[in-house]
Sequence to fold (376 residues):
Amino acid sequence: MQFKTRYTGLIDRYRDFLPITDSTPIVSLGEGNTPLIKLNNIVKDLNTACEIYVKYEGLNPTGSFKDRGMTMAVTKAFEAGSKAIICASTGNTSAAAAAYAARAGIKAFVLIPEGKIAMGKLAQAMMHGAMIMQIKGNFDDGMQLVKEIGEKAPVDIVNSINPYRIQGQKTIAFEIVEELGQAPDYHALPVGNAGNITAHWIGYSEAANKNTKSCALCKDDGGCTYHGTPLVSGRPKMLGYQAAGAAPFMRGGPVANPETVATAIRIGNPQSWDFALAAKEESGGWIDECTDAEILAAQKMLAEREGVFCEPASATSLAGVIKDIKAGKLKEGKIVCTLTGHGLKDPDIAIQQSSTDPLTIPAEFNAVQDAILSNL
Ligand code: F0G
Fold:
């Protein structure tokens, strides 16, 4: 047997691909290195020739992909001597910001839409000691405020308009190509503020040493200028899926009052609009929408048929893929779906839609035995 080297987080793992130096003080909780799980039962149920994998980002330290971006954003803020960070959030960014700020010993300020974030996420931000401002408005209102405050107050913005967030998040693509030994044919993910689709595309582009206009750090020559040795030759088609009540890309512009059960992507005015469109166009992919019913059905299917528990927004990636398989748009090939956050984030929705209610019985042998025999 060989001992494994201790995994110390994605900055350490991918330091040659990230904007850091040897003296950068890394703020990490061991994020990244998440499982890529091949779906068996759902693929059988769908009777498809496609191979479907899910990248289970819910297994990051705070339970979502935001940790990949936050380790970079907080590391760079800390390196620059910043004492405080701020973000607007539908929940997960606030949880990650709060945790990484705690780790760095700096202050986190978070703006969340009152009553519209899942309980688990609120508990995290509170527990990590963030200063929480519940606004009487939605995520887009919060984002606007944060951009204005960021210009005046001594705080670093850690939303995905911070290019370091995107740099950290691009590492998901590196992990996937390393594990598959190639790029998948398609990569599906939920789209809210559109930072993550941008980050995925940059990661895949760098892995293949190809230019992309999605990279904000390489504005000078209009494309990402990564010049390393390519890990793989191809790039996937990027498939972005939005919730139907919050689908500005489908409406061709901002949506004033976004609404969806998938509160994480209840966003009407995505900040990375142009970068996301570049990802779609350069990759030859598409953006589409799923209804809340389709999203919840996919969430339940993953939990019941594969043992994978993700939050509603995360299931939008699989919901979209299922829809496109049924429509004959996806016929074969390797498809990776990002499952962006853990199901435990949103226990209320999970309990509301689960098929089995707990049975209350006497604490007696016969009662347990009867329950088993009548439910086998
Ligand atoms: N899935 C989950 C679970 C999310 O929390 C988010 C975004 C997305 C998907 C969409 O990613 O914004 O990069 O397109 N959540 C942000 C937040 C907005 O505040 O936690 P995106």
About this structure: The pocket of F0G is lined by residues 64, 66, 89-93, 160, 190-196, 264-265, 311, 313-314, 340-341 (CB under 6 Å). Strands lie at 36-38, 49-56, 84-88, 107-113, 131-135, 156-157, 186-190, 237-243, 286-290, 332-339.
